[in-house]
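C-alpha cells in:
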C-alpha cells in the first residue's frame, strides 16, 4: 500500500492542478485505483493518454454541479471497489468567475456559480463518498479528505486580496468553514480533514503570470499530505503545511 493508501479519488482531474495531482500520484507505488473525475472524461485527452501507460488511472464522469453525475460516479466507484475502501478524496474541482465576481460590479449568476462549484459541490461529493473513506479509517488505514482551497479564502488576509476575487474568496472561505466543521463533527472517526492552498499556479484559472507550475505546486502538496496525521485534522494550510489563518 502506498503512503496515500491504495484507492484515491480526485475531482476536476482533466486539467490544471487536478491533472497534475493525478500525474504525480501515478508515480507512487502501491496505488490500486486512481479515480480521475471530471465533467467530460471522453474529451480528457491527457487522462486518456495517461491511462494507456497506467492502468490504475480510471477516468470517471462527475460534474460537481450535477447530482445525477455524482450518483452515477458513486455507483461506478462502488462497482469497482466492491468491499474495498477509499483512502484519499481530493476535492479539487473549482472555478474562478472573472466577470461579475468583484466587489464593485457583482453579478448574481457569477456569485451563485462560484459557491455552487467551490463549496456546495464539495459538500455533495464528500457526503456521497465519505462512507468509503470511513471504511478505510475503520480498518486502521490511511483516511483523508483534502479540499483544495486558496489563501484568498482566508478572512485574516482578505485585505491583501484583489477585490476582483471576492466571489472566489468568499466561496473558498465557505469551503474552509466546511472543512473545519467536518473535522469537529467527525473528530473521533479517524479521518483527517484538511483544506490547503496550492499557491498561485499557472493554470487556466491562475493565468500565465503565476509563479508556480502545476508540477511544482502538486509535488509539494502531496509531500505535505503524505506527512499529515490525525492531529492535523481541521487545519487550513499552504502547500508546505504551514498554517494559514481561517
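Residues out:
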Amino acid at each position: 500500500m502506498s503512503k496515500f493508501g491504495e484507492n484515491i479519488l480526485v475531482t476536476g482531474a482533466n486539467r490544471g492542478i487536478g491533472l497534475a495531482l493525478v500525474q504525480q500520484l501515478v508515480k507512487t507505488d502501491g496505488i490500486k485505483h486512481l479515480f480521475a473525475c471530471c465533467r467530460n472524461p471522453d474529451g480528457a485527452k491527457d487522462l486518456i493518454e495517461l491511462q494507456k501507460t497506467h492502468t490504475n488511472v480510471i477516468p470517471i464522469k462527475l460534474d460537481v454541479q450535477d447530482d445525477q453525475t455524482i450518483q452515477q460516479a458513486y455507483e461506478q466507484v462502488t462497482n469497482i471497489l466492491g468491499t474495498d475502501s477509499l483512502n484519499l478524496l481530493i476535492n479539487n474541482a473549482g472555478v474562478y468567475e472573472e466577470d461579475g465576481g468583484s466587489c464593485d460590479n457583482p453579478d448574481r449568476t457569477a456569485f451563485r456559480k462560484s459557491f455552487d462549484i467551490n463549496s456546495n459541490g464539495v459538500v455533495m461529493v464528500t457526503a456521497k463518498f465519505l462512507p468509503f473513506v470511513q471504511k478505510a479509517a475503520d480498518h486502521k488505514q490511511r483516511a483523508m479528505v483534502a479540499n483544495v482551497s486558496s489563501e484568498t479564502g482566508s478572512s485574516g488576509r482578505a485585505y491583501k486580496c484583489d477585490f476582483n476575487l471576492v466571489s472566489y474568496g468568499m466561496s473558498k472561505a465557505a469551503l474552509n468553514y466546511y472543512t473545519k466543521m467536518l473535522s469537529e463533527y467527525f473528530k473521533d472517526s479517524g479521518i483527517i480533514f484538511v483544506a490547503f492552498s496550492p499557491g498561485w499556479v499557472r493554470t487556466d484559472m491562475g493565468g500565465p503570470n503565476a509563479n508556480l507550475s502545476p508540477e511544482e505546486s502538486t509535488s509539494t502538496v502531496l509531500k505535505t499530505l503524505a506527512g499529515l496525521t490525525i492531529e492535523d485534522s481541521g487545519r487550513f494550510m499552504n502547500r508546505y503545511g504551514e498554517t494559514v489563518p481561517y
